[in-house]
Design brief:
Layout (H helix, E strand, L loop, with lengths): L1 H36 L4 H6 L11 H9 L2 H32 L3 H15 L6 H10 L6 H24 L4 H9 L4 H12 L1 H17 L2 H5 L1
Helix pairs in contact: 4-7, 4-10, 5-7, 7-10, 8-9
C-alpha cells in the first residue's frame, strides 16, 4: 500500500508539473515570438513570422526610437512621475498625520469626503479641467499635469499614510510634547522617520500610477 501511495504521489506530481510547464510555454511563446520578430525586417516578418531571424538587427528599435520620439516621452514621463511623487508625498504625509492624531467631527467629515472622492471617476472632470488648463495656457506642459495626477492619487495615499501613522507609539509623541516640542517637530522628527517604509510604499504607488497613466497626458 505504501509503495502504491508513493507511486500515486509521483504520478500526481509529474502530471501537475507537466501541466504547469505547458501553461508556462503557452504564456511565454507569444512574448518570445514578438521579441524574435522585433529583430527581423518587415519583409521577413510578413513572409514567415515563425521563422528564426537570419541576422539580429536593431534597426526596428532605432527607427521606433527616432520616429516615435521615445526619448522625449521618457524625459516627460520621468518629470511627470517625479513631480507627482513629490506632491503626493508632501500632502499625504501631512494630511495622514493630522487625520491620525486628531479627533472630531471635522476629521470624520474629511475622511468621508476623501472616501467619496475615491469613488468618483476622473472622466467626469476631463472637460472642466481641460477648459481651465486651456484658459490658463497650460495645455501641453508637463508640470501642471502632475497636479491633476496627484489629485487623483492623494485620497488613497492619504488613507495609507493615516493607517501607518495610527501605529506610531503615542508615548513617543506625548513625551516630545511634554519636553516642549512643537507639533511640526513631532511630525518631522518622530512620526515621519518611523514611517519610512510607508513613505517608500506611497512613493512607489505614486510612480506606478503616474507612469502608467495614459488618458491624462493624452488629453492635457
Amino acid at each position: 500500500m505504501a509503495v502504491m501511495g508513493k507511486k500515486k504521489r509521483i504520478v500526481t506530481l509529474v502530471t501537475v508539473h507537466a501541466i504547469l510547464i505547458l501553461l508556462v510555454i503557452t504564456a511565454l511563446f507569444p512574448i518570445a515570438l514578438v521579441v524574435l520578430n522585433s529583430f527581423k525586417p518587415h519583409v521577413a516578418i510578413v513572409a514567415n513570422p515563425l521563422s528564426w531571424p537570419e541576422s539580429f538587427t536593431p534597426v526596428n528599435y532605432t527607427s521606433a526610437w527616432s520616429y516615435a520620439k521615445f526619448g522625449i516621452g521618457f524625459k516627460n514621463s520621468i518629470i511627470l512621475a517625479a513631480c507627482t511623487i513629490v506632491i503626493v508625498l508632501f500632502t499625504s504625509t501631512l494630511g495622514g498625520y493630522v487625520l491620525a492624531t486628531r479627533r472630531g467631527k471635522v476629521v470624520n467629515l474629511a475622511l468621508v469626503y476623501f472616501m467619496i472622492v475615491m469613488t468618483i471617476p476622473i472622466q467626469l472632470f476631463l472637460f472642466p479641467l481641460y477648459y481651465v488648463m486651456s484658459y490658463l495656457k497650460l495645455v501641453g506642459t508637463v508640470v501642471p499635469i502632475s497636479f491633476i495626477l496627484a489629485a487623483r492619487n492623494i485620497p488613497l495615499a492619504l488613507f495609507l499614510m493615516r493607517t501607518f501613522f495610527l501605529n506610531v507609539p503615542k508615548e513617543l509623541e506625548e513625551a516630545a510634547r511634554i519636553d516642549g516640542a512643537s507639533e511640526l517637530w513631532v511630525y518631522a522628527r518622530i512620526a515621519l522617520p518611523l514611517e519610512k517604509p510607508a513613505v517608500v510604499t506611497v512613493a512607489l504607488f505614486s510612480f506606478v500610477w503616474s507612469w502608467t497613466d495614459f488618458l491624462g497626458p493624452l488629453i492635457y
